[in-house]
Design a protein that fits this description.
Helices cover 21% and strands 29% of the residues. It contains 4 helices and 10 strands. It is globular and about 40 Å long.
């Protein structure tokens, strides 16, 4: 169980980075052109269209979606990590941890039939190909992602904001994808 808690802590750090000012700027200290260049641009997709491009170990996402919708190939961890504003729980397949599911609720309210609010994925040696975005995985160069969804505004952090509240983030560190986060709905828009 201890490795699961370590991985959960790493995921919380990643999600905290996501929620703390990334992609936003203070308009009082930046010109409007600087502010618009650092914010996520709409990807031209709805949340449902983005979800339909993403699969977890071959299981296509949909919206809304619950853990139970993923089927019998996955198991849910018994430990829920409490965070702010999100509670996270790891899911596993036969090879080990796959990703974390995020819920905008208390840990006690997390269950397999509750709608998932976000999917938090950190690439490791054993799960690099488990999340696919229209054929793109963490094994691929980010140029392949750009071919699928378009070039983002900033290098290193790829933000694709859906037209109706969802968001896809891909974080690239030195040419390798380190995480993929998909929000069915962003907390500030909930």
């Amino acid at each position: 169980m201890k490795p699961n808690k370590i991985i959960s802590a790493a995921l919380i750090l990643g999600i905290t980075f996501t929620f703390t000012g990334c992609g936003s700027s203070d308009s009082s200290s930046a010109s409007s052109s600087e502010a618009s260049s650092s914010e996520a641009k709409p990807a031209g997709f709805t949340t449902a269209e983005l979800a339909s491009k993403i699969s977890i170990d071959g299981h296509q996402l949909k919206t809304p979606m619950t853990f139970a919708d993923l089927g019998d190939d996955f198991t849910l961890d018994s430990y829920v990590q409490e965070g702010d504003p999100i509670s996270m729980i790891n899911i596993f397949n036969n090879d080990g941890i796959v990703c974390a599911l995020g819920y905008y609720c208390s840990p006690e309210e997390v269950n397999e039939n509750r709608n998932i609010d976000c999917i938090i994925y950190t690439a490791n040696d054993f799960n690099r190909g488990v999340i696919s975005i229209d054929g793109f995985t963490a094994n691929d160069n980010v140029e392949k992602l750009e071919e699928k969804l378009g070039k983002p505004e900033r290098d290193g952090i790829y933000f694709y904001e859906a037209t109706d509240g969802g968001k896809l983030e891909v974080i690239d560190v030195l040419g390798k994808v380190s995480s993929i986060n998909f929000f069915f709905e962003q907390p500030e828009k909930k």
